[in-house]
Design goal:
The chain is an all-alpha fold and 324 residues long. It has 18 helices and two strands. The longest helix is centred in the C-terminal third of the chain and has 23 residues.
Length: 324
């Protein structure tokens, strides 16, 4: 069972608020929220649930840039307090029944939340996003909490950090894991390193080493003679330098395989001039592209699957302040 379906979201909301509060007293926070009662105590003890509006005010007290976090993790560029807009974006390209299966909230409740008939609580928000991607959601809540302890998630988060370190040291891990989801692999009678090596283009010895590493870190487990993904998945979120090095790794891999390209492959580059504001719009377009990209992948019903690598780089090779 995946992490998302195991979590107690009422408890997670309580612990997240406590973690964000850190060393500030409840009284200090209550005063800045303008609350005449100890509402923070009630949130942290589970005697009351923080509404989405209340949670945003709480985050403002701690100067948390929610807009930046939402763009970074959820690709959402709208106003974070606009619940209808936020949920419409999160549910886009997905049926409410599919969202319900992933997060555990009923389709009727999701509809009421989306239509504004029921107020969104922090608990519900956490349950929804963890249903989409528990790795990204875990990173998001720790970003909110400035990496302070969240007892309910600390063990899983330590695994996430360890797995991410391994991925950045050898991004081929991601490619091997993808190959385990190929229909042709799932149809095998038993696991074959040679199949993964052929599908990924990775030498047999390295495939064996990666699988051993993944099994030791609970990324995969052997069931009925074949490897299956575990509840914790690999993440490519890290420091800027780590991510740049990873993009460089995939770019070099793509270039080395150029001689094997087919007429269906897409490749190329663009060099152009634009203003700083245009660059922001271009990055916004790039982020929205991923919603369409995910829709194509999710709606792909063809059983003849192959691994694909998509690599993007948008960089300014010179000085941002060249006109100053």
């Amino acid at each position: 069972m995946g992490l998302a379906k195991e979590l107690d979201y009422d408890l997670l909301a309580q612990q997240l608020i406590r973690s964000i509060r850190a060393d500030k007293s409840q009284e200090w926070v209550n005063q800045r929220l303008g609350s005449t009662s100890n509402i923070v105590h009630r949130w942290e003890k589970g005697h009351a649930k923080a509404s989405w509006e209340d949670f945003l005010k709480f985050c403002e007290v701690f100067r948390i840039d929610m807009k930046f976090i939402f763009v970074s993790y959820l690709r959402f560029q709208g106003e974070v307090h606009e619940v209808k807009e936020l949920l419409s974006f999160l549910f886009s390209n997905k049926s409410l029944n599919d969202v319900s299966k992933s997060c555990g909230l009923t389709a009727s409740k999701l509809r009421r939340l989306k239509n504004g008939e029921t107020n969104l609580s922090l608990n519900n928000f956490l349950q929804i996003i963890f249903g989409f991607d528990d790795m990204e959601s875990m990173a998001l809540v720790y970003d909110l909490a400035a990496n302070n302890s969240i007892p309910l998630l600390d063990e899983s988060n330590n695994k996430r950090i360890e797995i991410t370190k391994h991925y950045f040291s050898n991004p081929n891990i991601g490619l091997v894991l993808i190959c385990l989801d190929l229909n042709a692999y799932k149809k095998l009678s038993f696991h074959q390193d040679s199949f993964i090596s052929k599908a990924s283009g990775i030498p047999l010895k390295e495939v064996n080493e990666i699988l051993s590493l993944c099994e030791a870190n609970e990324l995969i487990e052997m069931k009925n003679g074949l490897y299956q993904s575990g509840s914790i998945r690999v993440s490519d979120r890290g420091s800027r330098d780590q991510m740049l090095n990873t993009r460089k790794f995939w770019l070099e891999k793509a270039i080395s395989n150029m001689s094997d390209k087919t007429e269906l492959d897409a490749y190329g580059s663009m060099v152009f001039i634009a203003s700083q504001s245009a660059r922001k719009d271009i990055i916004g377009l790039y982020l929205r592209f991923f919603e369409d990209f995910k829709k194509i992948v999710m709606e792909d019903k063809d059983e003849d699957l192959i691994p694909l690598i998509l690599n993007f780089n948008l960089i300014n090779p010179g000085d941002d302040d060249i006109n100053d």
